Amino acid sequence: MSDDPAILQGLLDRMKQGDRAARHELLDRACARLRRLANAMLAGSFPALRGRHELDSVVHEAWLRLLQALEQVEPPTVADFFRLAAHKVRQVLLDMADRQRRRAAREAPAPQGDSDTWGFDSVGGETFDPARLALWSEFHARVAGLPEDERKVFELHYYLGLPQAEVARVLGLHPRKVSYLWVAGTERLADEMEGLAGFR
What we know:
Layout: H1 5-16, H2 20-44, H3 55-72, H4 78-107, H5 130-143, H6 148-159, H7 164-171, H8 175-193
Helix pairs in contact: 1-2, 2-3, 2-4, 3-4, 4-5, 4-6, 6-7, 6-8, 7-8
């Protein structure tokens, strides 16, 4: 099912006119992109969650939150819709990371001698590092603090996986401007995260 921006904009326009069926069609067309986004974020930013949460569960929860949000707001443009979708996927993963962190804190064994297992869970042969999850959670939280123009480009390119050329079309910007904002945003985030030990 195509997720071409022109088709999505038509569905957004139908939503404004009270067409409830357009809301579900919009989400159905966005589902594949949400799935790719969630998979990329699980692998790159939340690797310790992969063995504990199915990709489908992440996508399903994000889909439901997005559906609920669309009951309250009507994004006027495709860019606004994508930003809302990115926010909901990020929100789901941050909530999962927070629950995982709290669970690990409750279940962590007391340190014994020179054991090197303190702070880790080796169930299933996967290393779980709560500190690393905390760092990635901080990174994603700081994305929301970027200047608006940088945040828009970052969210569409990083979270939604849109090529920069498509980001330019969605936002109505020159491709060079998109490239400039992407570099500025990533450099700003790198500078902010540089002082946090263990972030890479």
